[in-house]
Amino acid sequence: MVVQRIGRLSAYAFLLVTVLISIFPFYWMFVIGSNTTADANRFPPVIIPGSLYMDNITNVFNNIEFFRALGNTVIVSVAITAAQLFFSSLAAFALSRLHFKGRHVLFVFIVTTLMIPQQLGIIPLYIIMQNLSLVNTLTAVILPGIVGAYGIFWMKQYMDSSVHYELIESARIDGCGNFRTYATIALPIMAPALATLGIIMFMGTWNDFLWPSIVLKDTSVHTIQIALRNLNKVYYRDIAMIMAGTFLATIPLLIVVGVFSRYFISGITAGAVKA
Fold it and tell me: What region holds the ABC transmembrane type-1 domain (predicted)?
């Protein structure tokens, strides 16, 4: 009993330390964002929030179109996440539970594309967007991200272990077609995997900087990461203002993760414990 109690307390202490370490960067952003740049460069550093956060946020609003950029980011992130969930799960259903010639070769080819660095495709992708007259539009950011090899791989692995052939055969005996079987049988079972993939895709799209910075030049279509980058001036960098804007831009991500964290954990740990 004593050993179990010590083990339980040790586990709780470890979790508490882990939580504090995870929260500290966000707290530090808020501390810097609520003080001055001079305070950010002091030693020893300031560890208590100041009273200038709203002033720094006002400076952010005066320097960039923050809410326009935030709205553009929400549109891009939601569109890419929704498309990824639909097309990745649909492709995974076909590769996992439909029998057709060459499906294993096709899956190996899709997974192989994960080894190709994203940077190698930037130039041809930009040329394609330019030929389609999509440069400086949000479509140029959304279109390349509507489906990806990682999403297909993740959903197929989950489907292989969770969606049994017996369920698929039962649905077919009842007269369900392939798409109806996918929508009514496979999708409800894959809810944890969908939530996990959705969080990963949403966070990745929200924080993406490289491709939007290349294809979006007009400030009216800037995403939040590009807008925050514009706060960094050539001759002077107001660290406090940048941190205040960054903290504000991080809040939507924290809300999304908080709402879907339960599904995220169940999707990650699915199959880890067997009866």
Answer: 70-260
Alpha carbons 68 and 107: distance in angstroms, whole number: 40
| pLDDT tens, per residue, the chain with 275 residues | 677 788 788 888 888 899 889 888 888 889 988 888 887 777 777 788 888 889 989 989 988 899 999 999 999 999 999 999 999 999 999 888 888 888 889 999 998 988 888 888 899 999 999 999 999 999 999 999 998 899 999 999 888 888 888 888 888 888 888 888 888 888 888 888 888 888 889 999 999 999 999 999 888 889 999 998 888 876 677 888 889 999 999 988 888 887 777 766 655 555 444 43
DSSP code at position 236: -
- Residue 72: name the closest of 247, 204, 212, 203 by CA: 212
**Residues 6+ positions from 96 with CB-CB distance below 8 Å:** 156, 159, 160, 163
| CATH 1.10.3720.10 describes domain 65-230 | yes
Q: How does 154-174 read in b/e, with b if 16+ C-beta sit within 10 Å?
A: bbbebbeebbeeeebeebeee
Q: What are the φ and ψ backbone dihedral angles of 132, each rounded to 5 degrees?
A: -90, 0
How far apart (Å, rounded) are the C-alpha atoms in residues 22 and 18?
6
pTM (predicted TM-score): 0.84
SS (H, E, C) 139-190: HHHHHHHCCCHHHHHHHHHHHHHHCCHHHHHHHHHCCCCHHHHHHHHHHHHC
